[in-house]
Known about the structure:
Helix content is 75%, strand content 0%. By secondary structure, it is mainly α. It has one domain: Growth Hormone, Chain: A. Helix 7 (157-169) crosses helix 18 and helix 15 crosses helix 18.
Amino acid sequence: MTEQDTARSGAGIAARLDRLPPSRYFLKLVALIAVGGWFEFYEFAMPGGISLGLTHDIFTAGKAGLMAWNSFASFLASFFAGMFIGAFVFAWMSDRHGRRATFTWSMLLYSVAIFLTAFSHDAMVIDVLRFIAGFGISVQLINNDSFISEITPRHLRGRYMAFAILLVLTAEPVAVFLSFLLVPHAPLGLAGWRWVVIAGAMGGVAVWIVRRGLPESPRWLASQGRHAEAEATLAAIEAAVAAEKGPLPAPDPNHADLPAERGRWAEMFSPAYRSRTIMISLFQFCQTIAVFGFLNWVPIILVKEGFTIVHSLFYTVLMLLLTPVGAGLGLIFAEKYERKWQLVGTALGIAVFGVAFSQMRSIPLIVFTGAGMTLCANWLIAIFHPYAAELFPTRIRSQAVGFTFSWSRISAILVGYAVTLLLSSYGPAGVFAMIALAMAVIVLAVALMGPKTNARSLEAIAE
C-alpha cells in the first residue's frame, strides 16, 4: 500500500465504520468489552454490600477525621482517590497506547490489588490496596467508554453503549446478593465479606481470556497516523459484518474526515470544547453524590433506622433488582430521544424518589422509593456513558473523559464524609437533601450547556 493509499484509507475510516449495519458481531464486541466493565461495577456496588461486615471486623462507621485509616469513609475515599489519580493523571495513556492494551493491563492491576485486599487485616494496608485498585478501575472505565463509542456505528452508538451498561449493571445486584448470602457467615472460617471481595478479583482472569477477541479501535489507529493497521483492522470488521449481513452499504461521501493528529490536553479548554468540559465536569461531580451516596450507604442507613443486618441487606437487594431495568430503559430509549434530555429527566427522578425515600417509614414504601431511585440512577448511568464519550474528538477523547470523570472521584472521596456528618446530625433527610441539590445542578448544567448528539458522527459532534 502506497503512502497516498494509506492516507486515503485513513480519511475514510470513520465513514466506513458509521455505515455498518447492526449485527451480532458488534453485540459480541461490546459484550467482550463489557466483561471488564462488569467487574468495575461489581466493585462499585461491593462496598455497600460488605459495609456491615467491614464495620464489624475492621472499620468504623462513626465520625472520624480525614486521616482515620479505620473509618468506613476512609475505606471508600481511598478507592476513589485512586480513581481520581487514574482519571486525572493517566487517562492520556489510552490515547497514547491504544484502547485494547489499556483494557488489559488496567484490569489486571485492579484484580491483583483487590485479591490481596481479601486477605489483609490491617486498615491502612486495605486502604492502600484499595487506592491501587481504584487506579486500575478508573483507567479501565474511561478506556472502555472511548473504545465502544469509537468502534460502533453512529446511528447505533448510544444503543450499543447502553447495552454494555445493561450488562455491567447486573453486577450490582449480584454483588449485593452475594453479600446478603455471605456477609453474615464465615464459610471455611473466612469472613463472608472477604469471599465477596475474592469474587471481584476474578475480573483479571476473565479479561485475559476475552482480550484475544478484541480488535484495536480503527479510529484510534487512524488518529495516530497508523493507516495501514487501521485499514487492516477495519477490513476484518467489515468482512465479519458482511459475512453475517451480506453486501455492505456505501460509505457517506459527505462524512467528515478523520484527521491523523496528536491531541493536546489543553484542547478541552479551547473555545470549541470549553462549555462541554464545564458541563460534563459539573455533571460528573454531582452524579456521584447520588449514585454512591445511596448505593454505598443504604444498608447502614437502614440499620440506623432500626432494621437488622439481615433485613437491611435483604431490602437493599430488593431495591437493586431494578438496576438492570433502569439500564434496559436506557437501551430502549438511547436512540429514540435526545440523550441530554434523558439525563435531565432521570436526574429529576432521582431527586423526587430520594426525598420521598427519606420520609418513608413503612417497609413497602421504603422499598418502592428506593427501587425508583435505583431505576432512575441506572437509567442515567446507561445514558451518560455514551454521552460523555461523544463530546470530544478521538485525539483527546480519553484525556477529556478522564479529566471530567476525575471530578466524580473528587465528589466520591468527599461524599462518604458528608454522608457520615449529615446522617449523624440530620438523619436520612439530610443525606437526601444533599442528593436533591446535586440533581438540581445536573438539570441546569445539562439543559443549558449540553449539546445534542443522537445519530451524529463523532467527527461531526467534534466540529
